Queue: 2 jobs
Job 1
Amino acid sequence: MQEIVLEKISGYSIDFNSLLEKEIIVKGMIQNLRILSWGAFLILRTPEYTIQTIIDKDTISVPPEQLMVESAVAVRGIIKKANIKDKALYPRDFEIHVKEITVISTPAYEVLPVDTTKKEMVVHLDKKFDLRPLTLRHPRERAVFKIAAAICNEFGNYLSSTGFTRICSPKINSTGAEGGANIFKLDYFGREAFLAQSPQFYKQIMVGVYGRVFEIGPVFRAEKHATSRHLNEYVSLDFEMGFIESFMDLIKVEANTLNAIFERIEKDCGNEIELLDMKVPKIERIVTVPFDEVHEIVYKKYNKDYRGETDLAPEEEKLISEYGENEWNTEFIFVTHYPSSKRPFYTMDDPEHPEKTLSFDLIFRNLEITTGGQRLHLYSDYMNKMKKLSMNIETFQSYLQAFQSGMPPHGGLGLGLERLTAQICGLSNVKEASLFPRDINRLEP
């Protein structure tokens, strides 16, 4: 038997100021290597830093010419002050003058299939995704997913601080929450099962338990779209809350949550903001516009007639975003009161206009990133609505138990992580905000 003493594991954070002119050992991957007559500039990528090191070929045992990008190395050297302008490096006011370098491992490739050392990775999207284990190492790619991580973390942190409890719901279900044909079927030990379209049913059930809940997890949509807006698997940031007065309570919570996320990004991701040349937004005030009014604005202002359509076209989302910036000085537009025919059965209809729902979408920089609304909460209302829609009530018995047991007025929303990340980072395709995107043509890597 071997007994190991439990010790606190230290992170990679380095106090460069306190270690100035002192020796340090740092392990990481070679991000870039520029060989000169006297030695080389070696850029070392660690979990927290991408730092410049200086190699004098006369003072180390490993010639720079024998080093290779994406090798794992251990560097021993002296921390020196520096003044570096490359935005891909952090820190830029310190560097390491190398005394010794040890190669831990090297790539199996003789030549890497994609050059990740350039400021911009000039490669077709398909190739970028085919070689994702390598292309994700590019500084700009890493920056995007640092932003995505900050969004996820602060979404949970902020909601937890305001009384929400995190839940983790099943992703293999006996029925779909959204209905329709856009659902993946699978064999579950001889029974038909489905991949979760959303955590909707479980969120609502858990409102009866905790009152306020949130979840961060994957959802699956079997939509045969091949566009820059769609993924077949994406990460949904969901919350559901009870004892609401109206769906405006949900909008206010989302606005506050988003502002907390934006503040966290500005606080923790300064280097990524600079590298991506990002403009971090802020919701200064809440602007809501009824669905039908959006149609009218687009028709009268831009001479585009979508009146009569039961959903917003991508062009309408773009045009109402432009209108919002010019006329209302906002990048965030909550479009409310969508037609009942375009919302799931659990969405509450507007008592004054039953053909409309107490629901909303959030449009941000030309794209819908959120869908939410108030839900039915009375068992009798579910019975009436499901019978009206000729739904098989038996299929939903486990879900309906929550309402038989009593539920408060409640509602919630789902926010697409990849769409929000893409819009904040200025990406042209939502797939670029997915680590390993899944669309109708891609199942690897």
Note: The chain is about 30% helix and 25% strand.
Job 2
Amino acid sequence: MERILIVGSLLAIVSGIMNGSFTLPMRFLGRWKWENVWSLFIAVSCLLMPTAIISAIAPQSWTLITHAPAHAVWVAAFAGFAWGFGAIMFGQSVSAIGISLANTFVLAISSAMGSFLPMLLLAPHKLLEHAGRMILAGVAIEIAGIALCGWAGWQREKAAGVGAERGDLVGSARPMGVAFLLVIGAGVLSAVFNIGFALAQPIAVYGRAQGLSEFSSTNLIWWIMLAAGSVANLGFCVYLLSKNHSMAKFRQPGSVRLYSLSGLMALLWGGSIFVYGSAVPRLGSLGTSIGWPLSLATGLLLANAIGIGLGEWRSAPARALGWMYSGIVVLLVAIVVLSRASY
């Protein structure tokens, strides 16, 4: 049993590494508009990749989806569609304030809400048990880390100005106030993604009853949620492509590198979802409450390391960096607390 929990925790961490690094290619995609990058990213990660995986591993899944419990299918579709708007806000926030801060706020908010709410909805009696207390403590520590990192970002903007050290980052810089609204919206709606996954578990149960493996049965939920989320994302991208007359950028000379980087984004993020789906069943009855914050906190830390390495904090004063490092340490403590909840 302990070995299974360790494997589940490691898979959640691998998922976080993939999630924390998927925005890195955006730093080198400034020749395209935001909507060019995001539409390709969504099409591959939310439609092509999940469809290919399901078709290759369990082609009978398409029939099973049509016969899965209707209420769970609707929950998955609604949660996925809501998450789609959160994904839009997250993509915009990365362009607004950089990889480091955007990931810090969005992943931390999503981690806190996405771990606590599934437990509250599905197993409220466990709030007072050891695992529940550990999760609540981990969430509280994460909130403290968010506050420290947020203060660091505010100090950075005051000293360096809006859009400092952007490099070739795709999209436009935004004032910190606007960016805060984007990351709050993205964090809240991203948490809906995990809540929807937790509430849509009857689909996976039905899949296993029909002979699917645990991995293939969770893929039924992912496909529904990702397909629903792609509707919101691609709809917004089509609007921007028309408004900004940016469709022609797909055909500009030398775009092979841009297509490759956008595809890499999709493979990293899409892969993180399926790895997370493999982690949850191994983490016990509170898998969604433990795996989600563990994965997102790992991604948060990696994204900060990437942002610092790329020079996003080069012009920040020493005190701002001090607050950021303090926040990272606090978030490391949160990871330890949340990872121990399964024991």
Note: The two ends are 10 Å apart (CA to CA).
